[in-house]
Amino acid sequence: MSTPRGRPLEYEVTVAHVRRETADTVTLALDFGPERPPYRAGQFINVDPHQFRALGRTAAWLQEHKGRKELARSYSLASAPHEPHVCITVKDEEYLPGLTQYPPLLSPYLVNAPLAGTRLKVLGFMGHYVLPDDVQERTDHIVHLIAGSGAVPNFGLIKDALHRGLTPRHTLLCSNKTWEDTLFREELEALERAHPERLRILHTLTRETDEARYGPTVRKGRVSEALLEELVPDRATCLVYVCGPAIAAWDRKKALETRTPATPRFMETVLGHLHTLGVDDKRIKREAFG
Ligand SMILES: Cc1cc2nc3c(=O)[nH]c(=O)nc-3n(C[C@H](O)[C@H](O)[C@H](O)COP(=O)(O)OP(=O)(O)OC[C@H]3O[C@@H](n4cnc5c(N)ncnc54)[C@H](O)[C@@H]3O)c2cc1C
Prior knowledge:
Helix content: 10-25%
Bound molecules: flavin-adenine dinucleotide
Low-confidence stretches: none
Distance between the termini: 30 Å
Radius of gyration: 19 Å
Number of helices: 8
Number of domains: 2
Number of strands: 12
CATH class of the largest domain: Alpha Beta
Mean pLDDT: 96
Structural class: alpha/beta
CATH topology of the largest domain: Rossmann fold
Strand order of the largest sheet: 4-3-6-1-2-5
CATH architecture of the largest domain: 3-Layer(aba) Sandwich
CATH superfamily of the largest domain: Nucleotide-binding domain of ferredoxin-NADP reductase (FNR) module
């Protein structure tokens, strides 16, 4: 059995149930059996697309066109270790002809195939996007900055920290296109009601057309430097966990080839704001979904 910090191992798990979170996102609850291995909130597992017979031809086509093997995809854990199942939450990646170069391989399958009750092979557990053991000595304020499915590991981190009664308070800023796209909204609101002194949640929405949605805790637009300045007054002592889309490896390659800088995504933009506001890089943990 792997330890939380040991070498990742392959497990064959059962999809205990599937829960639809939003129009394009589901959570798969994975049953590891009676000997569930330990993991840390915020870690991820890998799922190799080659295990699914239905994806065989598409994977072969993509491999031929990309000139390299399709690799396993990583999925952060939405669950915390005290919860009964290990959960991953997967967003059905968009395909926009003319804009995206290839159709996405694995996420459409994980989101749309009838997987409840089936067996999956996963590799776990990996990643350092976790709370440090001495988090209570290091800070009294953890700031979570997430966009879209970037909410997944931070949801696990917050549930774990509140369950363990860790002393730091949490501020969670969720950036989404619309209110309906916001993952784990109701569970997070319930946690905020249960721990009003320890969890504060704010949203920023970029494409919400219902004006009634906006208010003091639901702002319009992207995560801005001004909003971060307002939310993070203790910039020398807080710890920041940032998760969301980042410039992908192929975007960087294309940028080098065309000598045109890659367009910054959520990660690059937010890190830029944090650095401008004087948050030391050592106080920032990041998980890039690029
Ligand atoms: C640590 C980590 C944790 C993650 N956690 C989550 C999570 O909790 N939930 C979640 O939904 N996702 C998560 N992801 C993202 C996830 O791993 C997948 O990247 C995502 O599901 C898309 O996979 P796919 O097979 O559907 O799409 P892919 O086949 O990977 O394609 C995605 C996009 O990339 C483009 N692309 C792919 N290859 C190339 C290429 N060679 N050149 C140009 N463009 C290319 C495609 O055109 C498409 O637009 C995480 C990623 C990491 C690294």
